[in-house]
Each structure stands twice: as structure tokens, then as C-alpha cells.
User: What shape does this take?
Amino acid sequence: MVYKCCVPRCRGNYENGPRVAVFPFPKSTELQQKWISAIHGENFQVTQNSKVCELHFTEDLILKHSEYFDSSTGKKYSVPLPKPRLKTGAIPSILPNCPKYLSSSSCSRESGDERRKRLENRDLQIAIAARVATHAQYEQERHFVDFNGFVKCLVSIKLPNDWHLMKSESSITFVLIDVKGIPTLLCSVVVTTDLSMSLYEGKSVISKLGTRKFPLTINHLNDLINTIDNLENFTRKNNGSTGKDHLLFVTDYLKDMAKHFDESDSNKIKFLCEQLNLMGVHKSHYRYSTDCIIFCSILFSISPHAYKFIRSTQYLVLPHPNTLHKICSHFQTNPAAEQLGGNFLMYIKQKFQFLCESDHVVSLMLGEIHLKPYLDFTGGNILGAAFNSKNAATSAQVFMIQSLLSSYIDVVHILPVKNINGEGLFTVIKKTISGLHAIGFKVVCVVSDNNSVNRRAMSFFASPPQLSIVYKHPCEDTDPLFYVLDSVHILKCVRNNWINKKDPDQTIMNPQFETDSENTQLCMARFSSVKKLHDIECTQIVKFANKLHLKSLFPSNLEQQNVKLVLNIFNEMTVQGLLALGDHHHIESFEMTAKFIKLICTWWNIVNVSSPGKNIRFKDAMLKPLSSTNNENIRYLERFLSWVDKWKHISDSTFGLSSGTHLAISHTTHALLELTKYCTEELNFKYLLPGKVQTDALEARFRKYRTMAGSQYLVSLRQVFEIESKLRIQTLLSLKISSSALGEVGIDLDSFESDCVHDINLPPPSNFESIMISVKNKFSLFRNTCLFSHTCQDTVPELFLRS
Assistant: This one.
């Protein structure tokens, strides 16, 4: 159907009129009104058949070609359109059969983007033309057709180092002479008058170099230069024995030096020898020692970017990141795969075989870390969902074990949850204890903070449910299971109770620390006295209480969780400052306040002992480990427990501690006394380190999660899983390699003289005995007879943790 132009007095597409392209009215109401106004169609009603022909638009508003600019080549392509179309926002401005004043001949102004593109295209075309002209000139200068032209072209080039030019009437010869020691002709290139190029290595003719056959006719200088470079590389590679001999001499000398140094310096020399041996070796034949593989794997797991940067500097020859990624990806360390299914406690099962017997008696720590409640898609899986809800997890329950007899600490399980109750948490705790018992661990006690959910969960170990110091072990009826509230959490609660008192002096009323239960005289410990002590000494250079500062006295809500700020108040220096300056500066109740701080400090010193020699280092008898022979500390805890019980009955929460804090401090003190008795009498411990019965190690792990996630308080579940996986990898101390010939071969780090570990994806050796590792007699360690077999190219080393 041929549409006719609707503009008044226009004959476009009528019987006697011209054949023209027509355009429909725009759908935009605003632009439609502009069209109606432009054609002066008063009371004009736009219909589906209303069209305006091309006679009423300027040429710059009508698109008849589609243009495309190729940035890679700098060319612009133009293709005619099947039907012309208008530019966006075009308005008719020409009325040919109407008075001239009704038409507007002004063209639309070029937009800024269009002008910028036009200028860029113009500049690019100029640059391409200049480049083409330069290239043509370059080709003209280096192209020749006869021998005279070749001689003229030689003036414009510079030969590589150590190359020399010799001219004669019939040829031009290029020679490479080794002037180190006795001058030796390594190779030469001869170009004759017929432009035929021949190659020689010494006195031997080279008929083929790479893919080219010689003699070869040349007509371009680049052919000569490329041939010279390739011939030099080929010759030096075949005649590099002198350099290898020098490296061999240096490495042998360094190995002899290593015998006269201690172990740390000897390891440095061995590393230097390994790097020297890798010089001049093609990258496909690199071999790395076991120590180097482990070091690089740990560094790569800590920071892949730092490892890639060190490798990119080319100061060291290190394994490719893909090799380390294959090694690290085979670790069974991802907590995401260890939920309450078939893979529950999978990592700790693998690790148990490398632990000593002293590592088996452990405490189970329970803690909660808050998460960002959203889901992440990674590795084809969705992470972030709660175990007990369809929604995203808001926190993660982390279970960590700590040996009571050694320094062994490890996270055994991470469970994402959303608003878990006591009964649900009890199920997970019981399954974790049962799983650890089945592996071979002996869980003596459970440690948590004073959260009501944790107390409720532990109460289900009794029937009927009730909070207790000791429960019947869920796996062994004859064994006890102790429950201890974290002493670090209790210390923070005592300080927070004190500073949150509503009276002006922030007073805590406590009984005198005496054995006489009938004495009910109350002492007033005023926090205002501690503040006044700080005010007195804040301008002094020499201070008694030098750790007091404003953050300790006026902590924010987040700083109230910092135990270091608590210890700035409960400190021996604060006690000495109050006693020394209280009378002279009229500090109210300074003696009672100092006695209260002294009581809490002494209790904290006893329950925070985590090393057996702490009392010798600080010359304090209260820092001895708890044992049956350490009667002084045991008696103090018994007196302290009586004092707390008496305090609970004679003081309310207005001027005393809260009921929860009273319960926690009494519960933990009693539990530590009973736990010490059980460990020394039943388990034959020499002593108990109460500092190991805390969640301090778990809080340190939470700080690592937040630090490694970018120093942010709220982290996602994906970040927790990935960081925990990295931390597990970083503790690896031995290799375990999969061999199709020998199965799983364990490798001890000290059992090698740093021979080699083959890189991955290399061809299998022809003889298995050629890769057997000889071990020095002085090591005499188990499983040190062989490294591994490359009878299969897919075998990938697997690292497992050795404590």
C-alpha cells in the first residue's frame, strides 16, 4: 500500500505527484505535537495512516545508509538501508508549496558525541595513513634486489653484540667469536653476490635451522637479522657446557660451605643451590625440592597475588600457580563439605592419624560468629543458607578442640544457623562429641560463653534438663563431661557490671574476703575512685597506673568486648596507684576499691595460666598451674568460691553483680576445681593449665576471619569457609603423594637432601628407579625410601596436616 503525504498542499505519492518515502508520526505525544505544529495542521487528528514524506525533512535528518567503524583496522563501512529512516528527534521543517516563511532551512546541530567520533575517525585515518607511509619507507629501505643494494642497506642496521662483519668482492661474512679465554669462532653467516645465504657452526655447514633450509636466497634485511639471532641461540645452546661447568662448580662449593653452618643457614644455601641448578634449564624440565613445593603452596594459599608478583619479578624460579592450585585444590579442608552428613568431621579424621597421643585429650570450645545474611554462588554451589532454616544464615556456630596436654588447636566443624534454640544446639554438640570420640579423641569438657542458649543446650545432657558442672559423658557412662563458662567472658562481664551502675560513684558492694561466714560487713568498690586516679595522673610523666586511659574508663559498646581494656583496670598497677595516692588526694573508698580489684586480679591470674613456666617468668606463685600439690592456688579458689556465694546472698543486682555474672563466676570456679581433681587423679595429669579451658583461641580465630576478609566485622559464610580452608592448608608440614606404583607415599621434610620433586603434567620417566631419593643416614626417619612414581600423568600430590 502506498501512503500519501498528509501535509497540506503536498503532492507526495499522489497521482500527479512525485514518488517519495514517507514516515509515520512519532508515538511520543510531545514530539507528535511538534510535528503537527511544524506542518501547520491546525485541528489535525493523527491516525494510523497519517504519514509525512521525505520532502519536508532536511537531508541530514534522513538516514539512507548504515555505517560501522572497525577499530581494529580503522576502516569505516557503509551499507545502504532497504528503507530510509529518520534520526531520533527529527522534526519536519520544509513546506515546498507554502510560503517561504513557513519553512525552516536550518540544519540540526551536530551533537558532541558525533563530532568527537568524527574527529577521532579523522585523526585515526591520518595516523593509519602515516603508519602505512612509514612502513612503506621502512620496507623500501630494507628491501633490495641485487648485491649492491644489499651492501647499501647494511649501513642502516646495527649488528648484535659479539658479531663482526667482514667484506670481500664476492661475499659478505658475519661471524660470532667467543673472546672469553681462547678466541673461538662459534658460527658464521655468508651472503654471496647472488644473494644466497649460507650458515656455518664452526667449520660445519648448517643445512637446516628451524623450519628453513639453507642456502637460502634473501631480498630483505629482516631475513638476515632473524637468521643471525636464531643461529646465535642455537650455537650457544649447543656450546653452553662452559656455563654449566661454572654453575656446577659454584653449587658444589656452596654445598661444601653448608657443612660448616647451622641448620637455618644451611637451608638458605640449599635454596640458593636449587635456584642455581634451575638456571639455564627449560621451563618444561623444572624440578623443585619438597621444601620449595611446600613453601610455595603455603605462600600461594596466603596470598595468590603476592605469589604471582614475586614470580613475575623473575628473581626466583618458582612453580607455576596452576601447579600449586592443583595441589591445594586436592585438600579435603573445605568446611562447606563437612555438614551433618556423610562427610561430617572428614578433615579431622584425616588429621588424627598424624597426631600424638598427648593431643587426644581435648576440650571442645563453642562460639558464635555473626554473618552477613545473604547467599553466595561459588563453585557451582549456593553458600549462605542456614542449616535450620530456609533463609540465609545470620551466624555460624564454630566448634574448636584444644588439647589439654599440648599446643594442638583445630576447628573441627562450622555450622551456619539462624536463631538456633537450645535443643537444636544440643543435638549438634552431642553429635560432635560422639564423632570425635569415634575418631579417637577424648573430650573432657565443653567451654562456651555465658549465653543462655549455650547453657540451655548443655542442660539437655541431664534428665530432667538442668544446668550442672559435670554431666554423664554421652559416649562413656563411666566418664564425666565437664561444662565450663569462659573465664575471659566472665572478666568482661564483671567490668561491664561495674561501669554500668546507675549511682554517681558506680558502686559495687561486696563482702569482706574472709573465711568467717558470719561476717557480713560490706565493702564499697567505687569506679569513680579509679576515674579520679586517672585524673590525678593524666598530666604526670611518671605514673602508678600507667595503663589507665579514657578508652578503658569510658569504653564504647564494641570496645566493651575488648579484654585488653578490661585488664587495664584489673591490674596490679591500678591497685598500687590507689593505695599510694588515695590518702593524699582524698580518694573515697580507695582501700576497698583496691582490695576488690586485687581479688579479681588474683582470681584472673590463677584461671588464666596457659604455660607451666609462667610463675617462674613473672616470679608469682599464683601463676602456677593447678594441681593436687599446688595447695595455695586451690585454697584461694575455694575461698573465692565461698566469697562469691556469700556475696550472692547478701547483695542485690543494684549494687552487686548481675545474677548471670554471679552464676557464671561461681560455676566456672567450681568447675575448674573439679576438673583439676579429675585430671590429676583419674587421668594422671601432673597439672592442669586453666588457660586452655577458655574460648580465647576461638576468638583469635574469629579475628583472623575478619582480618583476612578485609578487616570488616560482618563476614559472609563463603568468606568464613574459604578462610578456614586456607588456614588449614597453611599448617601443613608434610606431603602425601599419590603414586600408582606405591599408593600413598608420605614424605617428611627432613628426609631429603633437596634432590627434586617433579612438576605436574610431565612425561613419565623411563625407569622408576631413576627417581628414587637417597636419604642421609643421620635422618633415619620412617618412610624415607622413595619419592613417587610418574607412571600416570594425572597424579597430583596431596598435602595433609602433620602436627
The two ends are 88 Å apart (CA to CA). Residues 8 and 161 are 85 Å apart (CA to CA). The mean pLDDT is 82.
